[in-house]
Design goal:
By secondary structure, this protein is α+β, with helices and mostly antiparallel strands. It contains three helices and four strands. The chain is 40% helix and 23% strand. Helix 1 links the parallel strand 1 and strand 2. The chain is globular, with a radius of gyration of 14 Å.
């Protein structure tokens, strides 16, 4: 059975944010698929997430903000994989 791919998440960050850098490193280490966006590039991102970076989202749903430790991200990964498994049509 093929592995269920993780969805592409969005990580809102800011230049010079050490928590953002840690979050990116942890996401990479845990093999998440992530697009990284600087909140300061768009006023609406800055207004929505500017004080809370890093912020990890799936579409418009906030999954986590602040310290994104390996343990916390591992739990999120398991939840995403389970959700993808349940939404996948069963064939055969």
């Amino acid at each position: 059975m093929p592995l269920t791919p993780l969805p592409v998440l969005t990580l809102y960050t800011r230049l010079g944010c050490h928590l953002c850098e840690q979050a990116q490193a942890n996401l990479t280490r845990l093999e998440f698929r992530v697009q990284v966006l600087d909140v300061d590039l768009r006023p609406e991102w800055q207004q929505r997430y500017g004080h809370d970076v890093p912020v990890l989202t799936l579409d418009d749903r906030v999954l986590a903000r602040g310290v994104l430790s390996p343990g916390r991200l591992s739990m999120i990964k398991v939840q995403l994989l389970r959700a993808a498994e349940h939404s996948r049509p069963s064939g055969g």
